[in-house]
Every structure is written in C-alpha cells, then in structure tokens.
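#structure-requests
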Amino acid sequence: MKKPAVRSAVKPKSVPKASGRAARGGPGQESRPAGPRPSWRGLVSFGLVNVPVNLYPAVKPEIHGMNYLRKDDLCPIAYKKVCRATGEEVPFENIVKGYEYRDGDYVVLDDEDFRKADVMKSSAIEIEAFVDEAGVDPKYVEKPYYLEPQPKAHTAYALFREAMAKSKKVAIGLFVLRDREHLVMLKPEGRAILLIQLRFAASLRAPAGLDLPPERIEAPKAQLELALELVKKFEGEFRPEAYTDTYAARLRAIIAAKAKGRTVHARTEEAPRETEVEDIMARLKESLSAVRH
C-alpha cells in the first residue's frame, strides 16, 4: 500500500538553541520594538557628517527552506558541530574562529582582532565617491538592503538622501559586515536609502577559456533581419512586477495539495530542444508569426 503524503513526525527531544553573539556596529545600539532585527548598526560617513543607521535585508525568500527528515517517521534531522578528530560534539561557547596558515596549524582570531583590522570600517560605511548609476556595471550588483535612520538621525538621513536625489548621483562606499569588507552603492529609493552590495572587481572571473564565437561574425543577412524584427516585437520597459517566480508558486501549490492528501500529477510540458543550424530560419519565421497573432 502506498504511504500517505502527509504523516505526523515524531516529536524530537528539545535541544537548547545556541545563543548567537550580539551584533556590533558602533553607536546607537538602541533596542527596537517588535519587527525584524537589523543585520548591522553603524554610521554612514558622508564627509564629516555621520548618520546613525540600521541595515535590513531588502530580499524575502519566495519559499521557506525545506527540512531534512528521517524517511520512516519524519523525524527532523539536526546537524551538530563536532570535533573532526574525535567526533565529540562541541558547545557553541567553546568554538572560536581560526585561520589555517600551515597544514594543521591555526591562528585564532577573536572579535577584537577583526576590529583591529580596521576599526573605522567595522562601525561605519565610508563614502568614497559619488558616481552616475549608469556607470555601475550590472555584473557587480549582488544584494540589496535598506538603511533606516536611528532615532534622532532623521534630519541627517533625509539630507543625505536628498543630496543624492538632487545631484542624480549614487554613493560608493566600503564597510565591514560579518567579518568581511564589502563594496556598496547607496541610492535614494522613495523615502528610503537603498544599499546595494557590490562585488569587488577581483572577485569576478573573466570569460577567458570559454568556447565562444568570434566577436565579429557574419550572420546570414536574412536571418539577422528576422532576428532584429523579433527583438523589435518584444521591445518594452522593464516592469519587475510583471514577473513572478512560477517555480516557487507551483511548488507551493504542490505542498498545499499534498497537505490535503491530494495526488499531484506532473505538468505535461515538453522541454525545449536545441535549434539546429539548418532550422534557425524556419524557427525565426514561426516566432514572428506567433507574435503577430
């Protein structure tokens, strides 16, 4: 007999949660009422003006992460931090950070060591330049955050935001988050200031070694004309709200159906196939005909 899709898991023994370390980041450590906790607290250093801010992620997950379960009774799987040499579990308070400078030899680093690396950058976002946003190549963009002014900093925050808006410039800066230095871009976003984490140039790979066609290639004139016509048909403005994560939506629907004991059938969609060289012209014509209708 087929096992039902929904079963109750055995109740695991309560395991005390490891206490995380308090976030650091300079002045303005005021407690915040109910709501998301800031990822970082510190200052935006704009010339000699220092604006106390809180940093919050601007991205929310489309679907919560899955849990690993034991197949037979759906008992949740837990992961423990153990000593590699003995297999013994190590309590959180006995865990330190270390750098392996030689095989088997480590230098232990604590919070004070990370602050010594650059006290200023661990407590402040240092603005280095104001640039045109169009000059920031999209391949450097990594992750967005929101900056919120701390109490009594609204005036300075608004001044910085309006200066960027009026000048039509974005700010480029550096700061340390979670023991790593980050390159960031700050820009006005309505009433808020958006902080966009950027990649350092050294972290990007060059396409050298990839099997790519020549930079200039003579495409058949008829094919190019049809391709350009197809591009023209799809021209428009980028409207992010028009796009949704359909994979996550379908997965949520499957979860909801299985939670109600329903059988879920696979979608009958044919996977796309590679277009052969001799079929390109025909496929371009078919594409244009489909768009026209």
